[in-house]
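Suppose you are handed only these lines of text.
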Amino acid sequence: MTRMDGKALAAKLQEQLAEKTVALKEQVGIEPGLVVILVGDDPASQVYVRNKERSALAAGFRSEVVRLKASTTQEELLAVIAHYNQAAEWHGILVQLPLPAHMDEEAVLLAIDPSKDVDGFHPMNMGKFWSGHPVMIPSTPAGIMELLREYGIDPAGKKAVMIGRSNIVGKPMAQLLLDANATVTIAHSRTENLEQVAREADILVVAIGSGHFVTKDFVKQGAVVIDVGMNRDENGKLIGDVAYDEVKELASYITPVPGGVGPMTITMLLEQTYQACKRFLDLG
Ligand code: GUN
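From them, the structure of the protein bound to guanine can be written out as follows.
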C-alpha cells in the first residue's frame, strides 16, 4: 500500500506557484488577487477560509477575506460581489459554501463574474467544463487528478466509482475521470447494493460526508481509494469518509485524512487564481 501524500505534493506545487508569482510580478508589477467571502460563522468554513488566506499570502498573492454576519441580506451580499467584479486588482472571487438558509445559492453564484469564478461553480463555467472546454475546474476534483498523476495512476480504461453526487465534488469528479477515459459510475446514499457497486471499482473516490462510512467491505483488493471526507468524530478529531486503518490493508494507494485531498484543494484554487490573473493580463 502506498499512502498518497497530498500535503507534500501541495507544498511542492505551492512553492512552484510562489516562484511563478514572483516572476509575474517582476514582469508586469501585478500579483494575483484572491478574495474570499464568508457569510455567517460555520466553524468548518472558518477553518477552510483561514487556510485559504494563509496559503494565498504564502504564495505571494494579494488576499482578502470579507466576513459578513449570518443576518446579511442577499442584496447586501450581491452588492459585495458586484464591487469585487468591478475591481481590477482581484482576479478570483470565492463565496464560501454553504450559505445561510435564507440565501439563494444559485442566484449568488450566478452573480460572480465568470472570469473571476475560481471555484468553477458559475453555470457558464460548469457548462464549458461539461462540454469538454474547461476554463475553471472545481478545485477538489482538480486536486485529486493531480494526485493521481503524481503517483502515476492513469484512469484510462479503469472502472471508477464516485460515491457522492454534489456539484462541488461528485459530479465534476465524475466528469474529470470520464475525460481521462475511465468508465465511471456515480453512486450515492440511495444506491442499492452500494458495497457491491463500490467493490467493482479500480479507483474509488468517496465524498459522502459520513465518518468512516467506507469499510473494507466496499473495497476490492488493489483498488486506489481517494477520501474527500472531513468529519469530526466524538472526540472532535478530524476523520475521513473511509475507515483508513482497515481499508489500507486492501488498497494499492490511499489518501489519508488529514494530509490527503484537503491541501490539494487549496493548491488548485490558487493555481486557478493565478491562471485567471494571467488571462486578465492577456498572458495566457
Ligand atoms: N465549501 C466546501 N468546499 C468548497 C469549495 O470548494 N468552494 C467553496 N466556495 N465552498 C466550499
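What can we learn from it? The first helix runs from residue 6 to 28. The chain has ten helices and eleven strands.
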